[in-house]
Design goal:
478 residues; alpha/beta; 8-stranded parallel beta sheet; single chain; binds 6-O-phosphono-beta-D-glucopyranose
């Protein structure tokens, strides 16, 4: 649908940017921090580890000052569980607590709304060693960790996100450090962990509403709307299956407090259904989020399965590249979409479709907690980073977001990935997303100097004009 004049973004719109603790902070073992699964993960050859990353831990005031210069209204970041409680469920580490007070205070002083993710892929290693999320001890540990966060930061933080991309930790557990197992054993374990995370999330949402009645809390899955390859009903059914397994399982459990029936049937069929204890379903049903956050990079496209090994395509398979599952669906390329330098398809219209699908399904306000372009940015001879390709990407997505507003979708804010360059989940530092460039290479830390990229000036102007300047060229540097 076209509109003569799409609406302006609301005055209160949370124009922000995102990061996560283990990808941006560095200082991996400083000031009492315990190891997380990310500190012991095996890195793909040629990619750096998470020990220093952007060294945000030691640049926090400088980084917040740059965000203020950019005009950000919100900053979505995660709190490292192992800084607050180094072994996951033992004693609280005062130095870790103090670090996030510093960050949150600096943000508030700069007029930037903190949006806190409580868990972003960095499970305490001590809890991983006792079975991770499949062990109820981890669930209890997360609830106590949440209690500490609500007590410490509850008067300063209004927006809370429970778990980042739970669906990706289940669908790509090997890559994201959720499991070390293989085959059927991995799948059974992952879906038991999944159930543990759902319970933990439900209990934490309930706790948040009890302790902080003014606060808002919600989940943050990665949602990629799934298209059928054609109008062949078998393709449409395959897309419906993957939409359920990849997307709706997670959002239905958070909002409706129950398992999606088709996905439950799929789990039973595979022998992967989690063990449910007495009271679990009541806990899940008792919790409700105030909003739905989601990370959007692209859509997925699938065809009907052929039922043999060819259903699993040979592409690597990650958060945004669907491989396929024998007998269920086959991941295929979408010939209508361009790709970024890392093979991810770019689909701005799919962003609007995803907004509409989520809104139609739940009628809860939506918050975009990630969207962005990974690229090989370079510091140019003039000392600047000319990332016009990122501006194009953001422009196209923001235009579609505005059309989603026109469609009647309630949108709270937009926090692209990422505020500053950081280490990608599995493709190192050279895959950059930031508005702010960090002067380091994959292994050479150089001087870690910060340089605002062209996109940061363009985005700053967009925020100042409430989105009206979306089609303007990059403003002159100021
Ligand atoms: C999301 C994650 O999957 O996508 C982030 O929440 C991640 O942690 C981002 O960095 C981009 O993915 P990648 O693999 O390019 O780092």
């Amino acid at each position: 649908m076209q509109y003569r004049q799409p609406p302006s973004f609301p005055e209160t719109f949370l124009w922000g940017a995102s990061t996560s603790a283990y990808q941006v902070e560095g200082a991996w073992d400083e000031d009492g921090k315990g190891p997380s699964v990310q500190d012991v993960i095996t890195h793909p050859e040629g990619t750096t580890d998470f020990k220093v990353t952007a060294d945000h831990y030691h640049h926090v005031e400088e980084d917040v000052a740059l965000m203020k210069q950019m005009g950000l209204r919100a900053y979505r970041f995660s709190i490292a569980w192992t800084r607050i409680i180094p072994d996951g469920d033992g004693k609280v580490n005062p130095a870790g607590v103090a670090f996030y007070h510093r960050l949150i205070d600096a943000l508030r002083a700069a007029g930037i709304e903190p949006i806190v993710t409580m868990y972003h892929f960095d499970l305490p290693q001590a809890l991983q060693e006792v079975g991770g999320w499949a062990n109820r001890r981890t669930v209890d540990g997360f609830v106590e960790f949440a209690r500490v966060l609500f007590n410490e930061y509850g008067t300063k933080v209004r927006y809370w996100l429970t778990i980042n991309e739970q669906n990706m930790m289940i669908l790509h557990g090997k890559m994201l450090g959720t499991t070390l197992l293989d085959g059927d054993a991995a799948q059974r374990d992952l879906y038991q962990q999944n159930h543990g995370m759902f319970l933990a999330q439900a209990r934490v949402m309930i706790l948040c509403h009890e302790m902080l009645p003014e606060a808002k809390i919600g989940p943050a899955p990665n949602i990629a709307y799934v298209y059928p390859q054609s109008c062949d009903p078998a393709d449409v059914l395959a897309a419906d299956d993957l939409n359920a397994i990849r997307n709706w399982l997670y959002t239905d459990l958070a909002v409706r407090g129950r398992y999606h029936s088709t996905v439950w049937a799929y789990l039973v069929e595979k022998g992967w259904e989690p063990k449910i204890q007495e009271g679990d379903m009541e806990t899940l049903a008792a919790a409700r989020p105030d909003f739905l956050a989601f990370n959007y990079y692209t859509t997925a496209t699938v065809a009907a399965p052929t039922g043999d090994a060819s259903d699993e395509s040979t592409r690597p398979g990650d958060q945004q590249m669907t491989r396929g599952e024998i007998g269920l669906y086959k991941g295929v390329d979408n010939p209508n979409l361009p790709r970024n330098a890392f093979g991810w398809e770019i689909d701005p219209i799919g962003f609007r479709t995803t907004f509409r699908a989520l809104w139609d399904r739940y009628h809860l306000p939506l918050l975009v907690t990630e969207n962005g372009l990974g690229a090989f940015d370079q510091l140019a001879d003039d000392g600047r980073v000319h990332d016009d390709y990122r501006i194009d990407y953001l422009r196209q997505h923001i235009e579609q977001m505005r059309l989603a507003l026109a469609d009647g979708v309630e949108i709270l804010g937009y926090c692209p990935w990422s505020a500053i360059d950081l280490v990608s989940t599995h493709q190192g530092f050279r895959k950059r997303y930031g508005f702010i460039f960090v002067n380091r290479d994959e292994f050479d830390l150089k001087d870690l100097r910060r340089v605002r990229k062209d996109s940061s000036y363009w985005y700053g102007r967009l925020i100042a004009t409430r989105g009206e300047s979306v089609n303007e060229a990059t403003p002159e540097y100021t």
